[in-house]
Amino acid sequence: MRIKNDTGSGSVLGLGLILGILGIITLGFSISNQSLAKSRLQAETDSAALAAEDVLRGIASGYPCETAKEMVKGFGGVLESCHIVNLDIYISVYQENLGIVQRVKAHAGVGLDPTR
Asked: What is the DSSP string of 17-40?
């Protein structure tokens, strides 16, 4: 039983709506994946800075920037820069995730000083 004025536009509209919703869901998953990857990268960079600071203070053996570089390399990042100022260490790391380059920085020091 076919309606006289039916040209199939409802099917095309329904398919377009489904594809639009799937596109929005895919975009949402992609954005949340990138956000999660950046959070992980920041946490791993913070731990690398803390490990390098331990080496700088003499708690662990080695060289601070080499220690940070090895830790960063272990989780798939690249150490961009490593600077030591007094007893503080500053590192910058980047990592590519699904074609998007994410950069983070970390700082580790001896203690809390309100004048910094």
From this structure: HHHHHHHHHHHHHHHHHHHHHHHH
